[in-house]
Amino acid sequence: MELKKYLQKVIYTVVPVLLFTLITTVANANDTTTVVSKESSFKGNLLIILFSIFIVVELIIIGYLIFSPSTSNEVDSVTGKPKRRRTLWERFNNLKSMEEESSIELEHDYDGIKELDNAAPPWFTIGFTLSIIFAFIYMYRYHVVHSAPLQIEEYTIAVKKAKEEKAALDKLKPPKVIDENNLVLLSPAEIAKGKEIFIKNCATCHANDGGGGAGPNLTDNYWMHGGSLKDIFISVKVGYPQKGMPGWGEILGLEQVEQVTSYIKTLKGTKPAIPKEQQGELYKEN
Questions:
Q1: Collapsing DSSP states into helix, strand and coil, what is residue 263?
Q2: Are residues 216 and 277 in the same domain?
Q3: What angle do CA 132, 149, 138 make, to 5 degrees?
Q4: Are 275 and 220 in contact (CB under 8 A)?
């Protein structure tokens, strides 16, 4: 009992002081300028260690207070001893003490094993009741009055909102103006982006190395619709649907079409693994 009273005093006096100290320390640390050094790192780690120790000690004290029994000032009329108070754990689960178990014993027993008629814990009853209430509210809101969107509707709304936000950002950053008549080979970084786009969207018909497949070989000097940067740009942008070549302008955007065009131009003279036979007419640079 004396230990329990002492621990209670510790909680009521020391714990608030420690909490206040930790809060003010963290607040002051956030207000000051952060300096990256071994000393500041050590202080930060020390604060975390002290805080962790404080939490562990506090949990031990709380656990002791929850599970340890206590006595009241009332005296049992039969034994003449102070009545035992139920622990917080026993109250939380509506448990009976060992001395009170005889009041909830069932009349039957099995080979000397007796059964207790324990009531359901209050937290379980409350949680079960709340789950039923929640289910009725959910059904009414989502499937009766339709005051909130279901998953598919919520997804559609989110996609629409994302498109609107993207359109707003696109207005703030106008698209790159590309002059088809004055195209130049882009930088290596842009060409690398074009390669990624090519492998993702074009390799199905032209192979990863441009050697061709369903589509023509892009590494030789023969082109079906011209081999200049402008010709390649228009071929990628508009496409030739009658020959199975889709237009990628609206799908990729002109900036990515330009990147792919520059990458395709760099494929000239490379040696693909399985080159397709020549198609189209010989193209010579002016």
A1: helix
A2: yes
A3: 5
A4: yes
Containing structural domain, residue 193: 180-282
Contact at 8 Å (CB) between 233 and 181?
no
Neighbours of 211 (CB within 10 A): 20
* Structural domain includes residue 153: no
Residue 164, classified by CB atoms within 10 Å of its CB into exposed (0-12), middle (13-18) or buried (19+), is exposed
Cite the DSSP H helix spans in 116-202: 122-139, 151-172, 188-201
Are 60 and 85 found together in one domain?
no
- For the chain, the distance separating the N- and C-terminal CA atoms, rounded to the nearest angstrom, is 102
Secondary element (H or E) of residue 47 = helix 38-67
CA atoms within 13 A on the CB side of 95: 12
**Contact at 8 Å (CB) between 230 and 224?**
no
Asked whether 264 and 198 are in contact (CB, 8 A), the reply is yes
Dihedral angle over CA of 36, 40, 46, 50, nearest 10: -100
Q: Token pair 């955007």 is at which residue?
A: 253
Per-residue model confidence as pLDDT tens for the chain (286 residues): 455 565 556 566 666 666 666 566 555 555 544 444 455 566 567 778 887 887 887 777 777 665 565 554 555 555 556 666 667 677 777 777 666 777 778 777 777 788 877 778 888 888 999 999 999 999 999 999 989 899 999 999 999 999 999 888 877 877 677 888 888 888 999 999 999 999 999 999 999 999 989 999 999 999 999 889 999 999 999 999 888 899 999 899 899 999 999 999 999 989 999 999 999 999 887 7
Q: Does a structural domain hold residue 156?
A: no
Q: Which two tokens stand for residue 191?
A: 């060409």
